[in-house]
Design brief:
mainly beta; two-stranded antiparallel ribbon; 166 residues
Length: 166
């Protein structure tokens, strides 16, 4: 049976941390050469992940989640929506049951969480608790997934930046 991996915000080179058979990527501005993987264009702050339900065995997000806004106005300006929560729902939707999510992102209080002007979603080492058992705190904002945390750790990368890996 073929296994599939999806790398969000992949740039020119999607990553495949679990060594799946097929590699797919999504980026705002795909700029890759045709080859051993497929990269689709999507603005995941505004659009759903362009794949069907239960399609991937794993998903990764390297230095991506901090770029997804927490709150935006609706198109009519009469309400608000929560793109980060919506993206987490989308990740849950495209993962097969038992699928894995690997995320690596700079976290507060390290300066790298804030110095890039495109970082619009400050995260902490505890943000994942909004999306995992037993708390699932993001349910109050419309999160429907039910992730289980396998490992969360602070690491150093990108010139000493603190990151978490849920």
């Amino acid at each position: 049976m073929t296994t599939r991996h999806l790398d969000l915000g992949c740039g020119a080179r999607p990553r495949n941390p679990y060594g799946r058979d097929e590699l797919h990527g999504i980026d705002l501005a795909p700029r890759h050469e045709p080859g051993a993987f497929e990269v689709r264009r999507a603005n995941l702050a505004l659009e759903p992940i362009p794949y069907p339900d239960d399609h991937f065995d794993s998903v990764s997000a390297y230095d991506f989640l901090e770029h997804v806004p927490r709150v935006l106005p609706t198109a009519d300006g009469q309400a608000t929506r929560f793109p980060f929560v919506e993206l987490m729902n989308e990740i849950w939707r495209v993962l097969k049951p038992g699928g894995l999510l690997y995320a690596c992102t700079p976290v507060y209080p390290h300066v790298s969480a804030f110095q890039d002007p495109t970082h619009v979603n400050p995260l902490t080492a505890g943000t994942h608790e909004y999306f995992v058992r037993p708390r699932r705190l993001a349910a109050m904002y419309g999160f429907v997934g039910d992730f289980v945390s396998r490992r969360v750790e602070l690491t150093r990368h990108h010139e000493g930046a603190a990151a978490y890996h849920p």
